[in-house]
Amino acid sequence: MTQALIVIDVQNDFCLGGALAVPGGDEIVERINTMLSEFPVRVFTQDWHPADHSSFASQHDDKSPFELTEMSYGPQVLWPDHCVQGSEGAAFHPGLLTDPADLIIRKGFRREIDSYSAFFENDRRTPTGLEGYLRSRGVDRLVLVGLATDFCVSYSALDAARLGFRVGVDLDACRAIDLDGSLAAALEGMVEAGIDLTGD
User: Fold this and answer.
1) Residues 6+ apart with CB under 8 A from 172
2) What is the residue-wise DSSP string for 112-144?
3) CA–CA–CA angle 180, 127, 6 (5° rounding)
4) Cβ 8 vs Cβ 157: under 8 Å
5) Which residues lie below 8 Å from residue 54, measured CB to CB, with a gap of 6+?
6) Spatial distance between the Cα atoms of 197 and 162, rounded to a whole number of angstroms
C-alpha cells in the first residue's frame, strides 16, 4: 500500500492576517511539517485565482462576501478576493516546508469556475490531473490536511473516496471556516462516505 499526503491550500490568505483567514489556520503548519517525512508521496494544492475570478463578491453588483449565488454549475459562495495569482496572499505560508512536495496542483485558475477539490473543479467534471498522477505513483491511500476542513479539504476527501481511494483526514492538521454550520455538515458527509477522521 502506497500512501500520499495531500496538503490543501496552506496559503497566506487563509492564515492569520490573510484576506480569507481561517481561524487558527497558521496553527497547523508545524504539524504538517512533521508529517511530510512519513509519506513517500506528497502533493500540495494552491488556490490560484485571476484577479477577476467569478467567485469573488467584488465581481458581482450588489453582492457581499459569503452570499450565495447561482453559477452554471450550481450554487456558489461568493468570497472576498483571495489567492490572486502571483500575489503574496497566494503564496504558501512561509513556515510551511514546500521542498518535499512531489507535485503542486494549482486550482481555480479558470475565471468562470471555482475549484474547491484537489481532483475536480466545482462542476464536478473538469479534472485537475491529480487522480492520474496518484495512479501513476501506485497510490491507493490518501491522508488529507490543510484548509479549510469544510470546503477544500472535505470536497477533496469526498472526491477521493468516490474515485476509489482509501481516505483519511487528520483533523488536528486542519482548520475550518464553519460558515452557517458548514463544518458539521462536512464532517457528517465525510463519515457517511467512509472517510477515516482522526484527531479532534
Assistant:
1) 28, 31, 198, 199, 200
2) T----SSSB-TTS-SB-SHHHHHHHTTEEEEEE
3) 65
4) no
5) 71, 76, 111, 112, 113, 114
6) 16
* 99/78 Cα distance (integer angstroms): 32
Is 99 tagged catalytic? Answer: no
| C-alpha 127: how far from chain center | 14
* DSSP count for the chain of H helices, then E strands: 4, 8
What pLDDT is stored for residue 1 in this prediction? 78
pTM, two decimals, is: 0.96
Cα R_g (the chain), whole angstroms:
16
Pick the catalytic residue from 13, 47, 81, 152.
152
The single residue of 13, 83, 107, 174 carrying the catalytic annotation is 107
Contact (Cβ atoms closer than 8 angstroms) between residue 37 and residue 101: no
10 near 146, Cβ under 8 Å? Answer: yes
Q: Does the annotation mark 83 as catalytic?
A: no
Rounded to the nearest 10 degrees, the angle between the axes of helix 154-162 and helix 182-192 is 20
With residue 46 as reference, give the H or E element that holds it: strand 41-47
Task: Determine whether 9 is an active site residue.
Answer: yes
Q: Which residues of the chain have pLDDT under 50?
A: none
pLDDT of residue 171: 97
